[in-house]
Amino acid sequence: MYSFEPTEEQRMLMDATKRFAEKELQPAAHDADEEREFPISLIEKGWELGVLQASIPEEYGGFGERSAVTGILAGEELGWGDLTAAMAIMAPAMYVIPILVGGTEEQKKSLIPPIIEAEWKPNVAAYVEPRFDFYPLEMTSTATKAGDEYVLQGEKSMVPFAHIAESFLVFASLEGKTQAFVVPSQTEGLVVGERESLLGIQALPTYKLSLNDVRIPAESRIGGEDGFDVQPVIDASNLATAALAVGLSRAAYEYSRDYAKEREAFGGPIAQKQTIAFMLAEMATEIESIRLMVWEAAWKLDAGKDASKTAYLALMGASDMAMMVTDRAVQILGGFGYIREYPTERWMRNGRGIPNFVGLTMV
Amino acid sequence: MISFETPKPIKNMVMMVQTVAENMMRPVSRHFDDHEHEIPWDYINFMHDSMKQLGSPTGSEPEKKEGADEQKKDRPSIYFQRTAHLVEMLSWGDTGLYLNTPVGMLGTAAVRATGTPEQKKRFLRNILGEKPTLDAMAMTEPHAGSEMPSQTRTTAVRDGDEWVLNGEKIFVTAGHKALVDTEGFVVIWATIDPSAGRAGVRPFVVEAGTPGCSVTKLEHKLGIRASDTATIVLQDCRIPFDNILGSPDVKKKTTKGFKGAMATFDASRPFVAASALGIARAALEFLTEKVGDEGIEIRYGLPRSRMTNLEREIIDMKVMLRSAWLITLKAVWMMDEKIPNNLEASMAKVRAGDVCVKITQRAVELLGPLGYSKEHLLEKWFRDAKINDLYEGTGQINRLIIARRILDYTRHELS
Ligand SMILES: Cc1cc2nc3c(=O)[nH]c(=O)nc-3n(C[C@H](O)[C@H](O)[C@H](O)COP(=O)(O)OP(=O)(O)OC[C@H]3O[C@@H](n4cnc5c(N)ncnc54)[C@H](O)[C@@H]3O)c2cc1C
User: Fold this and answer.
1) Tell me, which fold does domain A123-226 have in CATH?
2) Considering only CB atoms, which chain A residues are within 8 Å of B334?
3) What was the pLDDT predicted at B57?
4) CATH number, domain A231-357
5) Residue B146, ligand 1, Cβ within 6 A
6) Which of A55, B76, B120, B168 is the most buried (most CB within 10 A)?
7) Active site residue: B5, B207, B392, B413, which one?
8) How far, in Å, CA of A111 to CA of A63, rounded?
9) CA B121 to chain centre
10) What is the ipTM of this complex?
11) Among partner residues B5, B306, B409, which is closest to A135 by beta-carbon distance?
């Protein structure tokens, strides 16, 4: 059966997330971007919404069952509130969900509950690498087995909250296969670099991370001796990023739509000019149809079907959508669109990063 | 709960229809493109017979039987979803031929949207009857298309128990097949009060063989040549009084006629979208097949900086095609759920119109001489595709509809 109707529970979570996004995230977004910092209290509040917790089974400290559909529905609302805040709140997901998906029973039992049952704590992933053609299946950071240990080497970038992180989930190539390793922040050889300055998501503190002969015990490898398949992690990250992009685009679209009805030029609201009205019609159409691709991919993931292609296509579509919609939002505001007092230029900067944000968030 | 699981009955039907598309349509596609105005009787008869045998699982909506309604209540209807899949697959076979499917087309849609139960029974009796029949809907006139039905000049004047119709309709899809080649009917939009603008416009049924109604011209077209596009002239054409669809109360100047026309379009636009996407899929499949024949594999999952141009193009097309299909599916799902779908119907139409034009154009470009050659059907699909951005409201008109919706504007505020 086809259905485009979220469940009652999903609606409740969406509504709660939207209320939070509207009341807390949107008003804080401008200053956070300017000051390059999000108030930690807001991140903690966002964490309490329980978006990640709802995805974790009770036995690991959560109160739900993993559902990518639920995750992307809430993710869209968070992205609508503020992309940066969404990524900050959800940063631990990129640490927890790979363990949930690929960890041994022991790893799940020991690593997940302390994070899920507590307040927001920066346990984060070190995933992205500082190269133009970064590709998660061919990482340049390496892991080598040496006796009872693994030795990690390489450079990571866009690692959120690295300066205060308790522990990292480091992704590296082991004999050509991308694997993940738990590395406590105090481990020798792990060097947190300078905070990065980025085009967008400026309130999210991200860092370079160097892995210089980092030695960790063999048990640190996710999935134990056999390791795990990283593809589901990539899929879930593609999806989460795409969902955030839908939310971000919706915010930019709604704002410019409302603005166009207020702003007058040549004797009437600019929204009454077809050039503007048609732009808005196309933005709305784009958002609605790409959203459905994200939904479909999430549904596939939950149904245990191969979701890799669909999730990837959804991200490709979402990435173009975010650029198209946010660029037009700036255009519709004219000169004001370029002024930082208005949110559109921030959405445009944030939107351009969408494909790079894979690995920063998960559903 | 959100689900994208194709229902079993639809899956089965799609498999069956694919066989029809592969065996009854593709092999004769080129022939009917080369021989414009030749009638594809084999296809028409085959579809008529098989749909009849199947008790019409696909084309026309099953008439509601007394009592049957109650029992079926808890089972959600998938009628429109199934029809969208059917249309997509037939159009994947050949859009021009698909437009000749004798299961109730645009005329039927108008009757369904605006007719009384008695009228539905009377006018739709021949569909899947003894012999195949086609039907048509005539709104466009030489002086105006997009601005219809407000600019309707065709008139209907009451004379006792009859209406007398006068005027000229152009670009009527299947007009000749409905009136001349089969015993079908055409729904004619005409004004009963020219001073009333669109409020005076009403739909009338003119059945084949009615004196005063003639087909005077068949167009020669860029594509969909297997489908006739007719000019219909009405000269003192007399039809029974109760051939006016809906309420015969002609005194009230309501916009009911106009709303009827628009309801017809809300109901039919998603199927134009589905048809567009059938062509788009055919073109994209052909492109990937030809590329595959050369041993070129399309890799998924790469960042854009690592893709070949061909990979980027094809992945881009896949996104366009899938997203357009999903919004179309949503629009028809809403119809099944009886949720108003005016916005989604136009969104589907706009996106599918864009997508099928882009995909066919790019596929022809990318395949070079193969794309441009008449040895293959791709060049034909390129020509066929464009109609979807024109009929049932051009891309611009559907953008207007979306814009008015999202901006909450009337047609006076945004035109
Ligand atoms: C093959 C074929 C089959 C057809 N089948 C049928 C049929 O079965 N029944 C039927 O009634 N009609 C049919 N049509 C007619 C079709 O629906 C019209 O051609 C279409 O609605 C456009 O009208 P027009 O050709 O008069 O163009 P116009 O209305 O003259 O439009 C010309 C251009 O101006 C644009 N435009 C018009 N108004 C606006 C506006 N307000 N804002 C922005 N742009 C605008 C249009 O988008 C278009 O690009 C068919 C046409 C073809 C080619």
Assistant:
1) Butyryl-CoA Dehydrogenase, subunit A; domain 2 (2.40.110)
2) 4
3) 41
4) 1.20.140.10
5) yes
6) A55
7) B392
8) 16
9) 22
10) 0.94
11) B306
